[in-house]
Fold this sequence. Notes:
There is one protein chain. The chain is of the alpha/beta class. The protein is 20% helix and 29% strand. It has 2 domains: 30-163, no CATH class; 208-421, TIM Barrel (Alpha-Beta Barrel). It has 9 helices and 23 strands. Strand 15 (243-247) and strand 16 (251-256) form a beta hairpin. The two termini are 25 Å apart.
Amino acid sequence: MxxxxxxxxxxxxxxxxxxxxxxxxxxxVTDGISSCGNAWMPRxxxxxxxxxxxxxxxxxxxxxxxxxxxxxxxxxxxYLSLATExxxxxxxxxxxxxxxxxxxxxxxxxxxxxxxxxxEDCKKYLLALSADxxxxxxxxxxDTKGGTWQVGNNGIxxxxxxxxxxxxxxxxxxxxxxxxxxxxTVNKGSGAPLNxxxxxxxxxxxxxxxxxxxxxxxxxxxxxxxxxxxxGIEADxxxxxxxxxxxxxxxxxxxxxxxxxxxxLKAILDHNNGGSPGNVGIYKAxxxxxxxxxxxxxxxxxxxxxxxxxxxxxxxxxxxLSHLDGDRFVERQITVVASGSAxxxxxxxxxxxxxxxVFYDAHVDQWDSRFTSQNSYYAxxxxxxxxxxxxxxxxxSQDQKNTVKSQVEKAHAAGLKVRYCKF
Length: 423
């Protein structure tokens, strides 16, 4: 019997990079490196997930910018910028650790005459920041912190700095000449986590079996999880004042399930489907993959379910929610699962959930014969509570093996996915 644990840790989700001004700390240097950045980027493209996926390295990102900037003229005092996707590895082995981020490229003309960019010179300056043995390069992991190459005596600056957060300007894979780039402020309050949303930055991401527990605590809710391919995202909610509010111990005023999760997910799905509802999912690289939105009810008020069902209406109207059609489960792009204090009896009967598009997180260790694929999706438990702590895989007792086998067989027979976690 093969047992797959859905809730696995995703390396790199909690890596934090600070937004920094592009010209901070520059030295007066003539034709050389004047400063290094703070965020490490692998020099070459990286193969991850046992060779099934690839992330862009610094060299590929440089080629993207320099090709786009070729022949462009930067006026005196002006800027030409572009942000593009890159892997950020935090100075660790990029084959096992990293997150999808961005590298901000910028050419700043500080002289009194025009500066015309050529692909050859652009690549020469920016690739020097990743040269073997250079002051901005890492030998062990073949990575670079990027930085600034100064052309002339404080004349033209070529910047390349990594950032986990996308820019606030419309500059992702687009040339931008208005000003220096600045990163967005991640909203963990009454607005979407990102605005504008980097809608095309997930195009090459392949989904994988990972679950973003307490996703609202991530550096960038929703985006951090999706950028590594998670197919499960969890949001804890409280019923407060007629709405469901995100929070763990206490709700965060104004931070609703709708603005932080429903609206961003719908925006991604609409975009992936050409601006209107369709059949393509969150991940264009695997358009048929459904993503689970696990809503953990922190309040048992009967109105909590009603408020969750109401908040999901935009996804429902788009036809994006998995649902029952008679007795048949119809999988769509988003599968909503209610856990915690969610009311099984109401979900089972359809009371308050007439579209039958909210499913229950059943208890794999407290099995009820009423748990079926018509009312539930997951069958979950805290592993130590349900099975015990064996210490290591080799120390599993026969009784513990039998317990796992029995629990999984019951859940699978009912058509449910088993999820052992550490709650």
